[in-house]
Every structure is written in structure tokens, then in C-alpha cells.
Amino acid sequence: MNLHNPSIPLLGASNFRDLGGYQGRDGRRLRLRRLFRSDHLAQLSPADVVQLQALQVERTVDFRGEGERRAQAYTLPGVTQHALPIEPTVVQRAKDMQARGQALTPETAAALMEQTYRDFVLHNSPRFAQLFALLLENDAPLVFHCTAGKDRTGLAAALILSALGVPPDVVMHDYLLTNQLYQRPALPPGDAPEAALRVIWQVQPSFLDAALQTIDDVHGGLAPYLQREMGLGPAEMQRLESLYLAPSR
């Protein structure tokens, strides 16, 4: 694949990137400087804020849970925040597993992550549908993020790219860029083995595949899921394309 580099370096966020430039439906490319994905925005420097202003960001969508948002709140001048909370579950499930005497290994950590992605589809689809509703309102530049910008944000990005006709291998490429870009925070030592933590703090193809397989199993495929669960009927899909795909040459 010959792909552009979507990363935009910031001092206070490590996984900030532009979804624009990927080739979507009918060979039309996603418009630049309209859709951005990121880790959380609570540690942006003054220079970062200036850069977001230069990108003309007007909206953020925050998938973090309520406790996450309270712990690391942010305000950006001239930017409207939309909270679409999806509560984190992996850390608590890992602690529960260890409390039951089960070892947290790379394999069990991967299984926890895969179940988390299944649950996104089974229990949190309305939040992703709210994101699409915001996208359909207008094309004002928007950043969607969670804490690390890898799981909740990663599935949201995959759904957006897929809806706009980006090929599955390119969708996976964008998803896996987190492993190159995201800088894990420095945390005090805990009880979890480092090998398992590396799994939790990164992404693997099997994580996203677990969500996509659940979409297939429960909804009969991505197309019916986007139409019925994300609210993207023919008219909405046409509007989404008109807002976020560049005109054909």
C-alpha cells in the first residue's frame, strides 16, 4: 500500500492524525482537515492549541467514560465538546480476573481486549450512531478521541472509513498505526505483568476483527449494520459522501 502519513505531531498528544487523504468510494479521497482522531486532549500545550486553531477544529467528540473525563478534563477556545461516554472495562476485568486467581498473560489480555470490542458492538452502538449524526450535521472540522485513541476511537475510525468506501486493508492499516504513534503514559508499577500490559496498551488485528465479526454475526454484515444501527440510509450515506469525500476529478 502506498499511503500518506496522516500523523500530526503535537507536544501533548501522541496519536493525533487526519483521516483525510485515504481513497474511498469511486476513487474519491477523504477530504483533508475535516476528520481527526486522537488520544485525549487534556495535556495539549499552548502551541498545540494554536495548531488546532490553525486546523480550524470546531468540535470534539469524547468517548471517555465519566470518571476519565473528570480526571483529565479540557477546554479548547471556540471548540464545542460532545460527550459520548463509553465506560472503560478492560482494567476492571483484568483486576477481577487476578482476584479470582487467574493469571493475566498476553493471551488472556488479548482475549479481554477482543471481548471489549465485541461489547462495543453489542452495547455501545448507539454512541457510534451519535457520532455519525454529528458528522451528518455539517462538515465543521471534528476531532473524535478517547483516552489512548486506540480502541473506542479505533473502532469509530474503522466505521467511518468503511462507510466512506475505504478498503478493509487500508482501514486495518489506519487502525494499526496506533502501535507506531501512541506513547503509553508512565504509570507506577502494578501487579500486572509487563508482557500483558503491552497487549492492553497496543492494538492487534484480532481486536478490530472481533468487532467486525460480531457485526457480521449479529447484524448480517457491515452494510446492514451501518444502515440500521448507524442510521446511514441511502440519503444519509449520500450526504456523508458529499461532506467528506472530495469531488471526482
UniProtKB/TrEMBL annotation:
<dbReference type="InterPro" id="IPR016130">
    <property type="entry name" value="Tyr_Pase_AS"/>
</dbReference>
<comment type="similarity">
    <text>Belongs to the protein-tyrosine phosphatase family.</text>
</comment>
<dbReference type="InterPro" id="IPR026893">
    <property type="entry name" value="Tyr/Ser_Pase_IphP-type"/>
</dbReference>
<protein>
    <submittedName>
        <fullName>Tyrosine-protein phosphatase</fullName>
    </submittedName>
</protein>
<dbReference type="InterPro" id="IPR029021">
    <property type="entry name" value="Prot-tyrosine_phosphatase-like"/>
</dbReference>
<dbReference type="Pfam" id="PF13350">
    <property type="entry name" value="Y_phosphatase3"/>
</dbReference>
